[in-house]
Write a structure and sequence with these properties.
The structure holds 3 protein chains of 3 kinds. Chain A is built from 12 helices and no strands. By secondary structure, chain A is mainly α. The longest helix of chain A has 35 residues, at 182-216. Chain A starts with a helix and ends with a helix. Chain B is built from 11 helices and 2 strands. Chain B is flat. The chains are: A mainly alpha, B mainly alpha, C alpha/beta.
Amino acid sequence: MTTVEKQLLASPRNYGYILMVALIVLFLFGWSLTAVSFQGMNESGLKIAGNILKGIVHPDLDLLLKVSKQSVLYLLAQTVAIAFLGTLVGAVLSVPLAFLAASNIVPKPVSWLTRLLLIVIRTIPALVYGLMFIRVAGQGPFAGVLTIGLTSIGMLAKLYVDAIEELDTRVLESMTSIGCTTFEKIRYGIFPQLLSVFLSVTIYRFDMNMREAAILGLVGAGGIGAPLTFAMNGYKWNQVGSILIGLVVLILIIELLSNKLRARLVKG
Amino acid sequence: MYDKIFPPKQVVLPNGKTVQEKRTRIPLILLVLLVATVLSVNLTDFNLRMLVTRIDQFFVIIGQMIPPKWSYFSPVWSALLATLQMSLLGSMIGAALALPFAVLSSSNIIRNRVVTAIFKTVLSLIRTLPTLVSAIIAKFIFGLGPTAGVAAILLFTLSYVGKLLYEQIENVDMGAFEAMESAGMTRVQAFRYAIFPQVLPGFLSTSLFCFEGNVRYAAILGYVGAGGIGLIINENIGWRDYPRVGMIILALVVTVYLIETVSEHFRKKLI
Amino acid sequence: MIEFKNVDKTYANGTSALKNINLAIEQGEFVAVIGLSGAGKSTLIRCINRMHDITGGQLHVDGVDVAKLRGSQIRRFRRRIGMIFQSFNLVTRTTVIKNVLVSFVPDLPLWRKWFGVFTREQKIKALEALDKVGILDKAFVRVDQLSGGQQQRVALARTLAQNPDIILADEPIASLDPVTSRMVMDDFKRINRDMNISVIMNIHHVEVALEYADRIIGIRKGEVVFDGKSERVTKEILDDIYGGKIEEMNPSPEEFMAHVR
């Protein structure tokens, strides 16, 4: 056997592993396929698809541009307001939870329990909270704010925790040598380190919450979602078109702003 | 802009040197935030008193969920499986479709600016549409049932994975690609052997991450008639049968946690 | 004037870090403390501003019995002693001037302390301190955009803003490249000479220590084994301080200076 052949045989062989993973994936794919059927789809489906497209191309400009309580502009503003206040509420609630979940601040069992709570909060879909808060606060945008606030906690607190655990504590030593008290060390040593990260994470979440706020209307929690559903159920495709155009443009603008702001926060 | 309205302050040191200090933007930022908050409070009918007096109701509901109704497990199980099927299928097809979309959006592979611009715009437009909205539209086209849910998840996966993938392809080291092209390979061949291996781990890991999120999305799609667990959540909250809702949530939390753990294991292996 | 009288330091775990230290350092001296890692250099320096408590003997700084200070007395005492660290210890996510202004924080009235609003005089003092170390133009730049040498100068400016009588430096150039090290050492020397501030510095690079310091203190296993003018340090004395390990511990002096020149 030549050395070349030896090397050839020695080449790492994880084909078995890859083959197994591929088989599992293939099996899962086949299993999932049993869920779909195209029986519900018929010619009217295609016609509706055509109508939707027509509606988007010919939006109801009156609805889109007029200023009244039913207009797209007002509802979009309300959606932004729900997302904004919800993010604010979520951020305020997340800060103490994040400190309770940071393993370098509190004892292990406490941080473990808080993390478990955060996972549970994060996993429950927003609509479930939405339906529950409607029982508490009645239909309307206020329920939406509370829902967004609660759903934001899961991600916000998790990312805040990361920032807290990465804190640079060496600066505290130098502040001790300057003669600072504990309060001064927190205010001038820890606060500035956390502020920019917390802000950047919160802005990112606001961006995501725009989408959440847009769908909460489906359960009656205010914002643009409800009129969108009504328009669709009533087959008013040009209204659907104008709402969708407004929503997409708004979300794109907010995403752009959020990216710019965060880039500035990171680079200074 | 801001510097023009409020010109930088000149600070003169005793030794005659001067320093330009830009005016702080903090008052402006605080003002904007304050105005935004006040406006939002008005627009959303934010009512602190109602919150304080009624928030206990929220915990009453949670209290009723505990203990969950264990005997309700078997309907939950079949709904959960339907939800999983929906998200698996949508994620797989979406991720597979994302590959050609991403390639066609990458300006370093496709020389035609118009093509890349069109595909990039399509991807970002799809991404902007909330999943639930695309699910409703899909419901009108495919009829009630999981197919609409699959379509919605597929679209979201396509846009999310597609965007991250083309960003990755555009940032890839082009040296190997050029070397292979100069060695006489076609652009497709060069892509297959020079760029694909570089982006594959990132692609798989993004797809897995997207799948994790999709399980959660799929859980709510039932609300608009796409079947699965969202349907029974909606029904049972409607009937105020909270022990059953508790059972559903427990099953969902455990499932999502398991999936996240498994997926995280594989994602760590990939990177 | 810093006076160690029979100072002992034993850590809680029983390790004896300093044994029977007797030293007197006059105002305005530039002292380099050399020795192996773990010999007790850091402990010696940190006893001076009470970052560590001594366990035996007496330590006087300008007539103050350091061991007897309590609570806010310690903090007020530390105001007059600056300290520089190997890792700069700055808040990197904020601007240079805000890092320097931290020096004034303990003197602020409560509302200013909460909102972080400093007076004009304080800002000018901070800028002057930055000017003294030659980075005035970086005053409003974020610290994470500066090089290591510039960051150590910010730390130096922060210390200068305290208007200290003494500067303690714990391995100030250990994370810097030779060229930058030299610039930072020049800053130390100038501050020492022009402002008559005592500098007490732990340092690994023997050759740099010999060049810049007036006086060398050699420490081995918690004891002072050499104390004298830099010119008096010979190869034998270094062998004694480092237990014959000087070649292993440091880049050879020739090699180090070759980088510098």
